[in-house]
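Action item from last week, closing it out:
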Amino acid sequence: MKKRIVSFLAACLMVVCLLPVEASAADSQVVYYDDGSYEVITVEKTGGARASTITSGTVTHDRYSTAGTLEWKAVLKASFSYNGSTSTCISVNAARMPDTPAVITRRR
């Protein structure tokens, strides 16, 4: 009976070890401005399963007034694939809340 229990537990452990695992990490940074307002920038990276070649990430900008009230929020989400030598953007989604006028900066 004891051997069956140990064998069953060992089999369960092997099954759990074969399941895909995702890694996720988030970093935040606060930028303070001269007028007293500040912005919280959060970068979250999510890797795929162990053998996956796809990785995703989200960057969030939360802008607060001098009184600490959330004025606006911008979120950028993207997914990339990597084949060992080159990477390709699979998808990208950008949103801002509330609907504030877009500011687009073009660099050459």
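Closing note: Residues 103-108 have pLDDT under 50 and may be disordered.
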